[in-house]
Amino acid sequence: MQIYRRANGDVGVRNELWILPTVGCVNGIARQIQNRFLKETNNAEGTDGVFLFSHTYGCSQLGDDHINTRTMLQNMVRHPNAGAVLVIGLGCENNQVAAFRETLGDIDPERVHFMICQQQDDEIEAGIEHLHQLYNVMRNDKREPGKLSELKFGLECGGSDGLSGITAN
């Protein structure tokens, strides 16, 4: 099988450019950035796509809710199918971009960019510029031969109830 081997040793099967809002308030801005970028780059030719992972979380979240949202976004930034990631925050959310960035540990700054909308004169143009920089790095990634045993799979049993682990599994 053909894979993308990432610098940290992880293996992906796609090479995608991801846009991750830290808060639902920037979903519309992120969608505008994505749409304009796709037009400018002929649908990000040479990649497996540009995807926006919009959500309704991040604003006024506390405790476990905040931790769960942050953990989900951390895992997405590190996902091996993401050749590059733009993290977009508004600037007033609980999940502040600077604090979120620190939780990620060692990341490749050429492949993960951060933007705070309230700090930009024109957040659409700034976001598009970030995507172009990320695109120019990740579009040169090449597939190479790999083994199925190198892949990590996530599985979920979506039909379970509280007792199925005892009675059925």
TrEMBL record:
GO terms for molecular function: lyase activity. Transmembrane segments: none annotated. GO terms for biological process: D-galacturonate catabolic process. InterPro entries: GD_AH_second (IPR007392), UxaA_altronate/galactarate_dh (IPR052172). Residues 4-137 form the D-galactarate/Altronate dehydratase second domain. Pfam families: GD_AH_second. This is Altronate dehydratase.
